[in-house]
Amino acid sequence: MTDCIFCKIVDQEIPSYKVYEDDQVYAFLDITQVTKGHTLLIPKKHVTDIFDYEPELAGEIFARVPKIARALEQAFPEMQGLNIINNNKELAYQSVFHSHIHLIPRYGKSDDFSIHFGNNQEAYSPVEMQEIAEKIMKQVK
Ligand code: 5GP
Ligand code: ZN
């Protein structure tokens, strides 16, 4: 795609710190380095977000995640955990519209990454939970 920053990185029109490359994917350091080793894994083919994947390409990209995760663990033995994040659409913090998976190594509670999972368990009855599950299940194709 002509005006996509990550397509330009894949095509070497914009420089990047490459971590891994094969025929389907490219992995490189995120410029912001939320934590040391923060890596982005992207399909070489332009895919806007998770809703845009063919199953085969989804398989190819997700199959590479453990490969990069293990490389990070080996590279940084002081790493204590790894967050894997995939933002989709602006509200969900996607800022580059070429799908990418963040791999963010974790070094301690005071490193520069945080995430909040609310707990709204009290807001839904068992009946409502069942309705929600069925509503989604009907749409799985
Ligand atoms: P998003 O916010 O869409 O989930 O993540 C986009 C990421 O791309 C951000 O973390 C941002 O730092 C990174 N990014 C944006 N432009 C560039 C760039 O030109 N080079 C690199 N290496 N990372 C970039
Ligand atoms: Zn692109």
UniProtKB/TrEMBL annotation:
PANTHER family per UniProt: ADENOSINE 5'-MONOPHOSPHORAMIDASE HNT1 (PTHR46648:SF1), HIT FAMILY PROTEIN 1 (PTHR46648)
Any Pfam family matching the protein: HIT
Origin species: Enterococcus silesiacus
Active site: H100 (tele-amp-histidine intermediate)
Chain ranges for the short sequence motif Histidine triad motif as given in the UniProt record: 98-102
Annotated transmembrane regions: none
UniProt-recorded Gene Ontology molecular function terms: catalytic activity
Biological processes per GO annotation: nucleotide metabolic process
Protein name: HIT family protein
SUPFAM superfamilies for the chain: HIT-like
Superkingdom of origin: Bacteria
Domain HIT: 5-115
